[in-house]
From TrEMBL:
Domain of life where this protein originates: Eukaryota
PANTHER family, sorted: COP9 SIGNALOSOME COMPLEX SUBUNIT 7, COP9 SIGNALOSOME COMPLEX SUBUNIT 7/DENDRITIC CELL PROTEIN GA17
Listed SMART domains: PINT
Annotated keywords: Signalosome
Protein name, per record: PCI domain-containing protein
Source organism per UniProt: Cherax quadricarinatus
Keyword Glycosyltransferase applies: no
InterPro entries xref list: COPS7/eIF3m, PCI_dom, WH_DNA-bd_sf
PROSITE patterns registered for this protein in UniProt: PCI
Length: 136
């Protein structure tokens, strides 16, 4: 599911008994943690604690970066490309622009890439999963 195209919401999956049981098995607990990362986390969380997660495939890494863009878009209408690149661990402007364009084509964000001013202007982003403890 972490590599499946068009799957960016994991809340329902996190509630399934067979998935919640993964956290109790030492062999499978890292995969449960990885699913939680994709449901609630961002790329920076992965970088900070990479050793506790299984190795990410290039497809998973791209999806996690897409989800990070969505998280950053919450409450912001424009994000400087420099800030975005830093949060995504990308130093190449071309890689960053390609990632943003891909996110737009997958329909998880809508907006404009203003290369002249170095800003991503956002009109819309999909919603992210909310941790159960964050609900009132």
């Amino acid at each position: 599911v972490l590599e499946a195209p068009d799957v960016y919401v994991f809340g329902e999956l996190m509630e399934m008994p067979n998935i919640t049981n993964l956290k109790n098995n030492p062999q499978h607990a890292p995969y449960f943690e990885l699913l939680q990362l994709f449901a609630y986390g961002v790329y920076g969380d992965y970088v900070k604690e990479a050793s506790k997660f299984p190795q990410l495939t290039p497809t998973m890494l791209t999806k996690l970066r897409h989800l990070t863009i969505v998280s950053m878009a919450t409450g912001q209408k424009s994000i400087p490309l420099v800030t975005l690149g830093n949060q995504l661990g990308l130093t190449s402007t071309r890689e960053l622009e390609d990632l943003i364009i891909e996110a737009m084509y997958t329909d998880i964000i809508h907006g404009k890439l203003d290369q002249k001013n170095g800003i991503l202007e956002l009109d819309h982003a999909i919603g992210r999963d909310v941790k159960p403890e964050d609900l009132p």
